[in-house]
Amino acid sequence: MQTVLAFLVAIGLLVAVHEWGHFYAARLCGVKVLKFSIGFGPRLWGWTSPRTGTDFVLSAVPLGGYVKMLDGREGPIAESEASQAFDRQSLRRRSFIVAAGPLANLLLAVGLFSLVNWQSVTLATPVLPTPVASSLAEKGGWVGGERVLEVGVTQDALIPIQTFEEFRWWLTTASLDRKVLYVKFNEPGRNVPLRRG
Q1: Residue 150: active-site member
Q2: What is the number of other CB atoms lying within 10 angstroms of the CB of residue 147?
Q3: Which of 40, 65, 147, 163 could form a disulfide with 186 if both were Cys (CB 3.0 to 4.6 A apart)?
Q4: Does pTM top 0.70 for this prediction?
Q5: Domain ranges in the chain?
Q6: 101-120 b/e with 16+ CB inside 10 Å = b?
Q7: CB burial class (10 A; 0-12, 13-18, 19+) of residue 34?
Q8: What span, in angstroms and rounded, lies between the C-alpha atoms of 194 and 197?
Q9: Which tens digits make up the pLDDT trace of 53-78?
Q10: pLDDT digit string (tens) for 82-122?
Q11: What pLDDT does residue 21 have?
């Protein structure tokens, strides 16, 4: 049930942002918006703006939505409102209104991705666990609890690291490239070469 609810919230957010893009672009271009609907089917809730006349609707099936604009192709319109009809706009304005929905979703994705990546995340420090008996780590003299300070594939050019993920990346790269990896621990001057077996 929680998964279904999370899906509905996520799809509702995507639909609302998408339709808001169309709505906002239409209003910028002077097009009259008759209805802004989140979902399809029977109306669950709604409100009509006294200023613009736009009917904002929440419908029963939340798997989409639409923005209904004044359009002469759907029936006759008053001459006083003709300049506000979608079909009377230039190709550039109509293209902008149509593209604004996907563009709003793209901006939402960039914003959410940026927000997630700007959050501080606690990463594990590169402290080594007790090695498995008879492993390369044990043969190299590790006992466990050592903090990795620097690593590199040459003993003269070690690079400082801060997280266990960095150390794991170095281990993987050295292993795939079949190179010796030199590791400097929290014990000064101790460099231990790791060789791929």
Answers
A1: no
A2: 12
A3: 147
A4: no
A5: 2-118, 136-194
A6: beebbeebeeeeeeeeeeee
A7: middle
A8: 9
A9: 899 999 888 788 999 999 988 888 88
A10: 889 998 999 999 999 999 999 999 999 999 998 888 877 77
A11: 95
Per the document, the length of the chain is 197
Give residue 134's region: left, alpha or beta (phi > 0; psi -120 to 50). Answer: left
Looking up tokens 């006349």, which residue turns up? 53
Structure tokens at 40: 């399809």
CA–CA gap between residue 96 and residue 124 (Å, rounded): 47
User: What is the crossing angle of helices 91-118 and 2-28, to 10°?
Assistant: 140
Q: Are 69 and 25 in contact (CB under 8 A)?
A: no
Closest CA to 127 of 175, 183, 174: 183
The residue among 53, 60, 55 whose CA lies nearest residue 81 is: 53
